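Reply to dn_fold:

You asked what the input looked like. This is it:
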Amino acid sequence: MITKPHILVVDDEPDIREPVAAYLEMNGYSACMAADSASALAAVRTKKPDLAILDIMLGKDDGIQLCKTLQSQAEIPVIFLSGRTEETERIIGLEVGADDYVTKPFNPRELLARVKAVLRRSSGRPAQSRRGTAKVRFGPWTFSAASHEIIHEDGRTVELSTGEAKLLQALIDNPHTVLNRDQLMDITQGRQADVFDRSIDNGIARLRKKVEENPRSPKLIKTYWGGGYALVCDIEQA
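and this is what came back:
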């Protein structure tokens, strides 16, 4: 028997969550709904969804914080829905671990395509990377994917955001390999970069501030103009 992927739809507006859930079910998925953070977390425990579609503004609740909780407790892929179009909010959503971001109003067919892409990307990740259990050494650092932190050989510990950890994991999985913005976007978020999307460049800049001795003259994460970025050091299991 083939098991249908199960999608959790979290939105405080019934006019959004009910049609979205119904459309998903019409297209071969099973779906459950939640109107707030508490019911969403309860659904995660009981229904064990494969993906969550999450409104970034949940009335009195905070969709950003709920996304962080989902990432830390269950590592469920997340697609944010938002009525806001500001670039800053979209970048924040992706940085806290969302796999994609769709603005309202949206075409249901587009949302369905995003769901398929994120599920395909999620199911294709190596189990070790997806579950975040590996510890690896690169340069003077040890990266703990489970705790989203890097530990320097001198004992310093630096915390990473979910977005930074995903980006570093992509570079670690492909050492000495130039990855362009589209490739990094696809690996970390399951989609291609828009023409004016600078989230990868911004993420690399923040990551360099944490791993490089001199971010203005990076030795670990190199830029290849017209190409992309590469982690130019060997990787060892810690």
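DSSP finds nine helices and 14 strands in the chain.
Hope that clears it up.
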